[in-house]
Design goal:
Organism: candidate division MSBL1 archaeon SCGC-AAA259J03
Order of helices and strands: HHHHEEEHEHEHHHH
Shape: elongated
Largest sheet: 5 strands, mixed
Number of domains: 2
Radius of gyration: 21 Å
CATH class of the largest domain: Alpha Beta
Strand content: 5-15%
Oligomer: single chain
Protein name: Transposase
Helix content: 40-55%
Number of helices: 10
CATH topology of the largest domain: Nucleotidyltransferase, domain 5
């Protein structure tokens, strides 16, 4: 028995909604500005979209699914080495706030992300988002990589992740390249291995460690190209907005892998 479809018929299919969402993130325009742009393009593409429709894309389950699959497809098509750099950063919820210059990075002003970048391809392979701390985002990024069996055997991290607990969270099969804090105590087995490598060839170790600056370089470039502020009010939409930055980065970086000189 044929049953009539209930509810309003959707104007866009999942692919179109995702393309519209990424276009909105790429242009860094407000929803109302995007509505004005689309009204000019409407006669060409036969589409009539309101600013409310654009805002709803941030919490659309189909858009989230397509974004997730797109992220994994881009990684699967690339020659991921598993030799990575990792770092965290924050996105402001208020105009005029800068994450690195703030002494208190609380959840009322910022949202935290942690990304793992593959040094060979320059692509993000792991991503974590948190409204509480960078450390929570760090753990979510590790969980994402392990869940999807993404190649990951070495990572460079800053001193904030040099404690015994964070090194253990990486797993036995992941080599940690970190520098100790001044007040490092309770070395443990993990730090004995690291200190032995530093002792064998300090210059080689430091040269390898400072490849982690690639993470900071990418963070700065991404914020300039795709925005450093999250305007959404709902938490789930903020998460989707920040995830879009990682996808846009991979889309524009896949053909521009960094040139790294091996020691």
């Amino acid at each position: 028995v044929d049953r009539p479809n209930r509810g309003r018929k959707q104007k866009l299919d999942p692919a179109q909604k995702t393309m519209l969402f990424l276009f909105a993130r790429l242009t860094q325009k407000s929803n109302r500005d995007m509505e004005a742009i689309l009204s000019l393009l409407g006669p060409v593409f036969d589409v009539d979209i309101s600013y409310k429709t654009i805002e709803r894309l941030y919490s659309d389950d189909e858009v989230k699914m397509v974004l997730h699959n797109l992220f994994l497809l881009l990684i699967n098509k690339a020659d991921i080495s598993g030799d990575c750099s990792g770092d965290g950063t924050g996105y402001s919820l208020q105009t005029g706030k800068h994450y690195r210059s703030e002494s208190e990075k609380n959840g009322d002003k910022y949202r935290h992300v942690f990304r793992l970048v593959d040094l060979r391809t320059g692509m993000y392979i792991g991503y974590g988002y948190s409204n509480k701390s960078e450390k929570q985002a760090f753990r979510k990024a590790l969980k994402f990589v392990k869940k999807h069996n993404i190649p990951f055997h070495k990572v460079r991290l800053d001193k904030n992740y040099s404690n015994k607990k964070n090194i253990q969270e990486l797993g036995e099969n992941v080599e940690a390249c970190v520098l100790p804090k001044k007040n490092l105590s309770n070395f443990g087995y993990e730090w004995h291995k690291i200190l032995n490598k530093i002792k064998e060839n300090p210059y080689k170790y430091l040269k390898d460690y400072f490849k982690r600056e690639l993470s900071e370089t990418y963070f700065g470039a991404d914020k300039e190209r795709f925005g450093r502020k999250i305007s959404q009010r709902r938490e789930d939409r903020r998460k989707t907005a920040s995830f879009a930055t990682a996808i846009l980065h991979n889309l524009f970086t896949i053909r521009l892998p960094p040139t790294l000189t091996e020691f």
